[in-house]
């Protein structure tokens, strides 16, 4: 601001008093220059204020940015942990699924292999059975032939016994009539008993036998008849029946009272060994008990041509 004041030769400019000089500067130019300078100063002051505000703002922004960065870092870390946990859970689930699939495949493969092994084993067993059958067929034929020869030998012995009986009968016919009649009746009774034993016996409708005694080869008819006669003499025995078979004849024993047949058979000289067959439920529900006996082996006499 410029004020004209001629007091004491002083001029007040912008609130400051200046002394006048005789030859001074152009007042208007000085005022204009100074005014410009003041405007620039005001502008600079404003800029300085702006700079201070900007500085504070920048500092505040840096602090906030640091806090934001820390928060972002924490959130990113938590998010990464959550994602890693989810990935691990998914991987574990996928791994378990793969394990189950592999287990199922392995089990199916093992079942297939087991079925193949079972089929092969069954084929081998059938093949071995066929081979064994082929191997024992000659032996069975040989046993049948041997048994047949033994039966023929025993039949020859029976024929000889018959001849002997006929000779004895002829001899006794020459004796007094009483003795002859008695001997004839005894001989006829023995022949009838033997023939009855050889006849096929039908199953009795009155009762079932309590024992079935199977005679194992070799077969000796004389010893079998002795065993039957001994059993028939027992008071506990109602009767016996002989079921004739080529390889294993069977003695059916009907009882009126229970007996220990195994112990009785073991005492007979005509029995080499005796065993009770407990398979098939023998002795239960009315089924007969079963036993197997072997006769003493005797030397077969050679036939003369």
Low-confidence stretches: 197-205, 300-305
Q: Assign a percent range to the helix content.
A: 55-70%
Sheet/helix structural class: alpha+beta
Mean pLDDT: 79
The main β sheet shows up as: 5 strands, mixed
Class of the domain at 200-299, according to the CATH hierarchy?
Alpha Beta
Instruction: Provide the spatial order of strands within the biggest beta sheet.
Output: 5-6-4-8-7
Would you give the CATH topology of the domain at 200-299? Beta Polymerase, domain 2
Total number of β-strand segments?
A: 8
- Succession of helices and strands: EEEHHEHEEHEE
The gross shape turns out to be rod-shaped
Radius of gyration: 68 Å
Q: What CATH architecture label of the domain at 200-299 applies?
A: 2-Layer Sandwich
Q: In percent terms, what proportion of residues is strand?
A: 5-15%
Can you count the helices? 4
Distance between the termini: 182 Å
Question: What characteristics describe this protein?
Answer:
305 residues, alpha+beta, Beta Polymerase, domain 2, five-stranded mixed β-sheet, three-stranded antiparallel β-sheet, 4 helices, 8 strands
Can you offer a commentary on this structure?
The chain is α+β, with helices and mostly antiparallel strands. Helix 1 (27-173) packs antiparallel against helix 2. The protein has helices at residues 27-173, 177-198, 221-232, 261-266; strands at 2-3, 10-13, 16-19, 211-216, 237-243, 250-255, 273-277, 289-294. It is built from 4 helices and 8 strands, in the order βββααβαββαββ. Among the domains are: 2-74, no CATH class; 200-299, Beta Polymerase, domain 2 (2-Layer Sandwich). Strand 5 (237-243) and strand 6 form a beta hairpin. The longest helix has 147 residues, at 27-173. The protein is rod-shaped, with a radius of gyration of 68 Å. The strands form 2 sheets. The chain has a 5-stranded mixed beta sheet. The chain has a 3-stranded antiparallel beta sheet with strand order 1-2-3, with no helix packed on it.
């Amino acid at each position: 601001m410029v004020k004209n004041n001629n007091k004491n030769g002083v001029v007040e400019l912008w609130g400051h008093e200046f002394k006048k000089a005789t030859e001074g500067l152009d007042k208007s130019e000085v005022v204009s220059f100074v005014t410009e300078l003041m405007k620039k100063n005001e502008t600079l002051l404003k800029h300085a204020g702006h700079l201070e505000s900007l500085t504070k703002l920048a500092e505040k922004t840096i602090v906030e940015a640091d806090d934001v960065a820390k928060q972002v870092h924490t959130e990113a870390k938590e998010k990464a942990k959550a994602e890693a946990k989810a990935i691990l859970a998914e991987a574990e689930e996928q791994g378990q699924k793969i394990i189950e699939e592999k287990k199922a495949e392995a089990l199916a493969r093992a079942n297939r292999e087991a079925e193949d092994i079972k089929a092969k084993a069954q084929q081998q067993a059938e093949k071995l059975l066929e081979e064994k059958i082929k191997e024992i067929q000659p032996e069975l034929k040989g046993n049948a032939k041997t048994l047949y020869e033994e039966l023929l030998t025993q039949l020859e012995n029976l024929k000889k016994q018959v001849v002997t009986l006929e000779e004895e009968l002829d001899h006794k016919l020459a004796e007094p009539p009483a003795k002859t009649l008695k001997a004839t009746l005894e001989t006829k009774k023995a022949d009838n008993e033997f023939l009855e034993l050889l006849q096929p016996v039908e199953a009795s409708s009155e009762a079932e036998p309590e024992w079935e005694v199977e005679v194992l080869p070799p077969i000796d008819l004389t010893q079998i008849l002795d065993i039957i006669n001994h059993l028939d003499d027992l008071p506990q025995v109602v009767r016996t029946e002989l079921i004739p078979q080529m390889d294993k004849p069977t003695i059916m024993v009907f009882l009126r009272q229970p007996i220990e047949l195994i112990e009785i058979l073991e005492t007979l000289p005509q029995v080499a060994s005796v065993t009770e067959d407990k398979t098939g439920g023998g002795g239960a529900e009315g089924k007969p008990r079963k036993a197997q006996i072997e006769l003493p082996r005797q030397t077969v006499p050679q036939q003369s041509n």
